[in-house]
């Protein structure tokens, strides 16, 4: 009985374990020669390779998505800081209400967009 299995070495390359022939199957005094891999065994290796690439692309996609969410969060925080700085410049309660009304009416600094985030 001979067998082959895929082995992942950690360097992004799939290496094969060499074929081993069971000692009882070999005749005494003769050396066992490994037979070439069949098409079915090569298909199994190709399937494993495709699964490996798929997993790699999923990890890269998740990393890019995470980076995009982080950038969006940082830009949203900067947006809120700009609005807060503008509103904090008001001198009294009436001035604050005027500034808020002005921002709502003119959609300045995407004031209405803040609530939807």
Task: Write structural notes for this entry.
The chain has 117 residues and is mainly alpha-helical. The chain has one domain (2-116). 60% of the residues lie in helices and 9% in strands. The chain is built from three helices and four strands, in the order ββββααα. It has helices spanning 39-88, 93-106, 111-116; strands spanning 2-3, 6-8, 14-16, 20-21. The chain has a two-stranded antiparallel ribbon with strand order 1-4. The two termini are 63 Å apart.
Name the features:
117 residues, single chain, rod-shaped, 4 strands
Q: What's the short version?
A:
60% of the residues lie in helices and 9% in strands. The chain contains 3 helices and 4 strands; from the N terminus they run ββββααα.
Instruction: Please give the count of helices.
Output: 3
Q: Say how many strands there are.
A: 4
Instruction: Give the tally of structural domains.
Output: 1
Strand order of the largest sheet: 1-4
Give the helix level as a range of percent: 55-70%
Global geometry? rod-shaped
Percent strand: 5-15%
Q: Low-confidence parts lasting 5 or more residues at pLDDT below 50?
A: none
> Biggest sheet, open or closed, and with what strands and sense?
2 strands, antiparallel
CA gyration radius, whole angstroms:
33 Å
CA distance, first residue to last residue:
63 Å
| Mean of pLDDT | 75
H/E topology pattern: EEEEHHH
Question: Would you tell me the structural class of the helices and strands?
Answer: mainly alpha
């Amino acid at each position: 009985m001979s067998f082959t299995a895929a082995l992942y070495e950690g360097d992004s390359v799939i290496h094969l374990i060499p074929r081993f022939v069971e000692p009882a199957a070999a005749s005494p005094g003769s050396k066992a020669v490994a037979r070439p891999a069949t098409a079915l065994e090569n298909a199994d290796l190709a399937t494993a390779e495709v699964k490996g690439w798929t997993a790699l692309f999923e990890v890269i996609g998740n990393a890019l998505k995470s980076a995009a969410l982080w950038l969006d969060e940082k830009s949203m925080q900067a947006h809120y800081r700009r609005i807060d700085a503008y509103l904090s410049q008001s001198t009294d309660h009436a001035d604050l209400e005027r500034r808020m009304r002005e921002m709502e009416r003119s959609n300045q600094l995407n004031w209405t967009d803040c609530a939807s985030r």
